Amino acid sequence: MRRASLLIILLLACLVGHAQKFFVQAPASQTLSARAQTDSLLAEFGEDFDSQNYKLPISVAASLGKTVRMTAITYRTRDPLGKEILASGLVAYPVKGAFRGTVEVAPFSKEKGRSGSKRLYTLEALPSLLGYVVIIPDTIGYGVSEDEVIPLLLSRNTAQVSADMRQAVREYFLSVGEKRVLPSETSLFGYSLGAPGTLALACHYTAHPELGVKLEQIYLGGGAYDPGLSLRGTFGLGENGFLLFPAITLSLNRWRGLELDPAQLFIGEVLRDFDYIASCRENPADMAQRYGTDVHSYLHPDCFREGYNEDLRRLMKDLENLVVPGPGEDFPHTVPVYVRHSVQDTYVPVECSDRLVQELKKAGHHSVLYRRDRSGTHNETAAKSFLDLLLMLL
Q1: Residue 296, domain extent
Q2: How are beta strands 214-221 and 337-342 bridged, if at all?
Q3: Crossing angle of helices 227-237/310-319, nearest 10°?
Q4: pLDDT of residue 288
Q5: Which end of the chain, N or C, is less surrounded by CB atoms within 10 Å?
Q6: Is omega for the bond preceding 325 within 30 degrees of 0, making it cis?
Q7: Do 220 and 252 belong to one domain?
Q8: Within-domain flag for 9
Q9: Spatial separation of the C-alpha atoms in residues 310 and 376, rounded to whole Å
Q10: Do 222 and 234 share a domain, yes or no?
Q11: 382 to 89, 104, 108, 387: CA distances (angstroms)
């Protein structure tokens, strides 16, 4: 009897020792062939791909690729206010063969309902066809946390949510008896609003060596690393093809407590439909086509008169705290960084990448390769950036 009680105690101790701190469950999964993934890439980007230059390399990648498993997982993390929240994401990995490494992606902005865990597929999962474990958090406001306000521009929270998902994926592999170990070698990728989140994740891993992540390379494209500079560039250009400013306003009100009055920032139909636009239930690019790309048609006239709009002044002041990397932040100075941006980008001004590269080099980081494209839309550069990543990982 005493021996049986001792065995029970030891068993309970083992269960507690293997308690899952992050991973909660894996509600859905599917397998996809390499051809299905690359066909989806071509279909989603469509005419943004130059068929002559890109279809052949993608076909080669598909022929080398593997069948992969796409699994949605839910896990515990923290929201921007530090409160525990249930989040979700997608992990993609080859069904057979050794893992070649890990690729972690902070996803670009999209409408709600199109996160990786909802679709069981996302373009950011492409490196999995080359043998990598690809980790793509939905981020807060998507997937299982879809009822929450998306914390736009809050890149440090994106970093926390991403790092916690990596821990959850490790626990998930253990829970399903996966014999292959999650590699410590990691490449980071982020495009558009995912790029500053990726940069913040690099800083996070550098500041937390106990996590055991070995950064191999960092790829950044079309990112708003300095949100204030991006917004001023939009005002100067007078045009924006991505109607995200209402959602940014809602984000800063919810998570930063700015109490911005939409009526002081917007006019016309955008003010009338502010709640709907800010919810991101529809693609911001599609909404820009409906409501107009000329910012003068929907921003309050005082936004263009320096010093006249108190709400805009407070917003711009707060954005100074959201620059990535910020003062005193750790950054992996020995890890190669690849930056790509088009001078014709009307979503995020190229000056953001100009400033980032300048600041990195000033801080002593000389392993920076900057490709400043003379032509190409935001989406065209995104397509090229995804291909760049695949070629770098081959």
Answers
A1: 228-321
A2: parallel
A3: 130
A4: 94
A5: N
A6: yes
A7: no
A8: no
A9: 36
A10: no
A11: 21, 17, 10, 9
